[in-house]
Predict the structure of Ankyrin repeat domain-containing protein.
Amino acid sequence: MEQLSRESEEHELPKEFEEHEASSCATFGTTDNTESDIHTVIEDISSQKKEEDNEESKAMKMKTDVTYTEQFPGESEKHEAASEATFGTTDSNGRNIVTDKDLSSQKKKEDGEETKSLETEELPLHQSIFHNNYAKMVDTLKSGYNVKMKDKHGNTALHLAVMLGRKSFVETLLDYKASVRTRNLLGWSSVDEAVSYRDEETVILMVRRLTEEIKEELIQNRRDLLDELKTFPDFYMELKWEIRSVVPGVSYLFPSDLCKIRRRGLLMRMDWSIIDYKVIVFRGHLAVIFDGAVTPHPSVDLLDVKKKEYIRMESETEHSETEVRNMAKMMMTEETKFFTMSTSNVAYTRMKKTSWLGAESDLTETVGQFVADIYQVHGLVGKFRLRGEHLGKKEDDKVKDEGKTDTSEVAGKADDKEKTNTMENKKHLPPPRPTRVTWEEYINAEPGMYPTLARKIKQTEYKMEVPNSIVGMVPTFPLTKAAFTKILQVIAPFKQFNKLREFMDNKLPPGFPVRLEIPIKLGISAKVSILEFRTSEELSEEVLHEDQFKIPEDYKEKIEETEEENEEKKRK
């Protein structure tokens, strides 16, 4: 039996990256343009892939000694089943249409059931897809079988349907709200596998479902935060971000930022100043306002204080068909990138200090208003992977030549016009040959080492260990870690905050972290410190005044234009 054949290279931080880092720039999860355009900030927010199911299987150690971890821990997928179909109907092609009754049955099955990896269970949904038995798959789904179930390799039924090129199966699984972001033991989602297979219509289906999942999650996160707000008092807190580079002598080029978070009743607001930075820092004043009193679900608005503009971050906003297709094409004509923190081998040791008499004691440090116990962090590694088998040979060579620059994510984005031309000029690869792998060969393979089912994976990986990383813990804190991460999830849906939440979801020393050092990009880490936390009794009235949570009357709403409207303007 042909075992898994994957061209996977593993690298330490490349020398070329260090040379590039000293003279280049870093994007802090926002726009690459010098103008602090609020529109690009929103685009960045909407492009975020949120955290995956906390039921994700732990990554298993590969023969290449590479341990993969989940990119999006801490997420509990919640689906809102909605359909206008009539029970028992079919479409023009005879394909079963998912109905309200079917979704209700599935939801009852999923509620309270943990998604898990199975080795010995029959996995009827997976087998029906592998054996190309559409009728059996539909019957299994109608019986209420959990569509999120994973096999021993971490693959969902949707993973298999995509890798085997079964488009009608993919469509039906998506009708049953299969998640497109769940990751397998190798760290890849079904979206990634669809891009690898490179069937454009399938990728479009997956991207459309991806936008739906993000909207569903936004609504649920806001509702969860609303429930959480009722459990703690009004407060004001400050977080300081200090960006650092692993390249000696260039950290001074990177800025720091002070984020201010305040809560009053069902209202919250966060202010911050860094919009973008390269070698020069681009500062502005942005704010997010959360209003939990708005129905049917809480609202979130993004304000540009300097420009006196705001955008309503509506979760109901629909992406046009043109936007969905362009996103799909962009995915298919670029290498797949994946950055994560490997925390499977993380350990903490209490740091010590020695007096001038030689006596040793535990080290404490003042962090803002707190006195924190300091721990040394060992084994925290940032991993960045590139996957490019879906590109033609010319484009694949380009990925290899430019991989080191791309992995640092400091080179900035290419000009939009150049990207469009490149996208139009690239030719699609033919689909992979049908697999000859049997179900027995697949399911009996070592976890994560199954034979290739679709296109042969070409992968490059870079590693970065965060040196001298520390964490500062305090015994008690007014908020729980869970409450704090929920706050950040709603009012700070930006890349750097995603990494902070991801790290806090892992096991930490006893107490609450008021100082953390985390990798946020290859070669870039951040020291995050909570400097202040005060309740309303300790604050002056103006700090939590109701006007802080309102959009001023002289602000103008900035309406996001669709791509069709932008194209129309260009033609004129």
Observations:
- The CA atoms of residues 383 and 463 lie 5 Å apart.
- Confidence is low (pLDDT under 50) at residues 1-120, 277-281, 398-426.
- The longest helix spans residues 200-229.
- DSSP finds 16 helices and 21 strands in the chain.
